[in-house]
Structure formats: C-alpha cells, structure tokens
Design goal:
By secondary structure, the chain is an all-beta fold. The chain has no helices and 21 strands.
Length: 197
C-alpha cells in the first residue's frame, strides 16, 4: 500500500508493506475505524506524491533537472526519453558518473520523429514513433543499450542529487547528454518524482 505523510504544504508518500496491525477500534456512529499498523518501507525513500517531467537539450553537459531540485536521495525509477534525430547517444548522471549509452551502429540511430524510452527501474528500453511514455507500445531496444559506471552490473542510471554549486544547503541533480547528429528537434526528457532521505 501507499503511505502518505502531510505536514502543512509538504506531502510525501512511500510504498510500504504492512508487517503487523492491531485489531480495529470501530466507531460505528462516525462510520470509521482506527487501528495501529507497523510497516516496512522496502524502497527506503520518501517520494513526492506527483511525478513531474523535465525537458532539456539533447547535446548539453551538466544540465540541472529543475523538477528534481530539493531531492536528497537517489531517484532509481526515472523514465528518460530521447527524441531524435540522434546517433551515438549517452546519458550521464554527473554525481555518480553512471552512464546509459546507445550502442553505435546504424541500426540504433534514433531517427527524426522517433523516441527512445529508457526505464531505469525495469532496466528496459523501447523505440516508439508516437508522443508516449509507454514502453509497451514500442519496439524493444534493451539489447542495444550499454550501461557503465558505478553499480552498472546490477542497475541502470540512478539520478543522484549533489551539493549545488555555491550553496551547501541545496541539492541539484545534474544530467549530461552527449551525441551526434542532433538538430533543434532533438531533446532529452526525464519523468520522475523527487526522492527524500
């Protein structure tokens, strides 16, 4: 189940597993019940309740993902979308040096109008020809993705916040995309909720 925490305007959620629960204390006249539950948080981190989408350049280094500003924990379940035309594309998490790369052969070039979807949580990739975030609607391209950097043997890109330049009390998630064959139509997008320790 999803546990929701609210303190004023701050709202956080976490997927939890109920470990134990008390017998419900029924309040029939108020049509409610009260119980105490002990939960585990397998995913470890609190998350924002809403998922946001950021759009950036497909050929720029060290771009701050503005929708993830304020995160204090790694985001391990991002969806990344690269819109073509692009070839030889790599996406890098600046803080960890982790990289997702598109193998460099003619068959893996992203043509104009095509989008490469990268699901970091599921470690899957698909090529789609419509404006969608649904990997199931595309052609599987997981086999042409190269992953390297810290932890790459067991996971894909974790977007990690680091101390923002000039402000030790602020955190920023920086991402880089390097490639060739880009035009003004090429772009990089990230969809994810923020994560908190």
């Amino acid at each position: 189940m999803r546990l929701r925490y609210q303190a004023g305007s701050i709202v956080r959620v976490a997927d939890v597993t109920i470990v134990a629960a008390s017998e419900p204390d029924l309040h029939v006249d108020a049509a409610r019940a009260r119980l105490t539950a002990v939960v585990e948080v397998p995913g470890v981190y609190w998350r924002d309740e809403t998922t946001t989408t950021w759009a950036g350049n497909a050929d720029t280094e060290n771009q701050p993902i503005t929708t993830l500003v304020g995160s204090t924990a790694p985001i391990v379940d991002s969806l990344i979308r690269i819109t073509g035309p692009i070839s030889s594309a790599t996406v890098t998490d600046v803080a960890t040096g982790g990289v997702l790369g598109l193998l460099t052969s003619g068959s893996t070039t992203i043509a104009a109008g095509e989008r490469l979807l990268l699901d970091a949580a599921a470690m899957r990739a698909a090529l789609v020809t419509t404006d969608t975030w649904d990997l199931a609607t595309g052609t599987d391209k997981t086999g042409v993705i190269s992953v390297f950097g810290p932890g790459s043997a067991s996971r894909w890109l974790h977007l990690t916040p680091a101390v923002a330049v000039g402000d030790p009390f602020s955190r920023a998630v920086l991402i880089s995309c390097s490639d060739s064959g880009v035009t003004v139509a090429s772009k990089l997008e990230v969809r994810a909720p923020r994560a908190f320790l």
